[in-house]
Amino acid sequence: MATAPIEPPQRLVSSVSGDPESPVRRWLDALPTLVQQRLDDWELTLERVHAPGGRSSLLALVRQADGTPAALKLPAPGRRVGHEAAALATWDGWGAVRLLRADAASGALLLERLRSGVSLRSLPEAKALLEAAGTVRRLWVEPPAEHPFETLAGRAEEDAEALGTAGGLTRAAGPLVAEAQELRRGLPAASEERFLLHGAFRQGKVLAGERAPWLAIGPSPVVGERAYDLAALVLDRFEDLVAGSGAAAAVRRRVAKLADSLEVDRDRLRDWTLYRAVDAGVREAAVGDRQRGELLLEFAAWL
């Protein structure tokens, strides 16, 4: 039982809408009660709320009734609540954090405890990329027959609106945005691969564990081709590549190296990377970070 007050981390509070009637705001206000309910129902003892934490969920470090350490995650409400639990259940600890319990009503997850302060980002770039590639490869499995996950075609369709908000970027961005829009329409239909993908893979979402050296967390699962997941890995820590000498050549080498090491078509990986870089750049500019948005578009241009 918890005796200390449960306070959501400031990062989570700051990222939530100020509208008191929004579902996410009401969820945030109810979080202390929701956490306490899970602690009581699952016989957990709260150690502390993890900070700074994420922008769309609360993570609490807890102990189970037998003293085993675990992590309690409560995600913000959304139509994909439950998809993370379904993906973790499918992987069953293979390459990813193990799901111990789940509550369908609240979306709460009880997860095995990993070393939250140690991710692949703590490693040198070459070693981090190697370990990340090995981890994401394990996640690419056949989805269950009756799965709830969206497809890449559906996800790309949702991105159409975001790509249409590129007005705040420079005129030079126009051709790249047009190419990304064309790729959005054509890429999903041009592949017959149907793997369960992490959907939001990056080095920061691979943590050190006891059961295995590195395990993935926080999936946004989607069904489609492997190049989509791998494109996010090409983009990971892109600022380091941009800051170095010979950046354009280094970007293309990264695409070739990752594609060849995981037996993914180089051209498909290049196209998905360009699409994801432009999409991310437009989104960053739309929320006010124009500098980062322009940097992502520059990265895309080198492809």
UniProtKB/TrEMBL annotation:
Record keyword Kinase present: yes
Chain residue ranges for the region called Disordered: 1-22
Listed InterPro entries: Kinase-like_dom_sf, NH2Glyco/OHUrea_AB-resist_kin
Keywords: Kinase, Transferase
Protein's UniProt keywords contain Acyltransferase: no
GO molecular function: kinase activity
Name of a matching Pfam family: APH_6_hur
Entry superkingdom: Bacteria
Annotated protein name in UniProt: Kinase
Taxonomic source organism: Streptomyces nigrescens
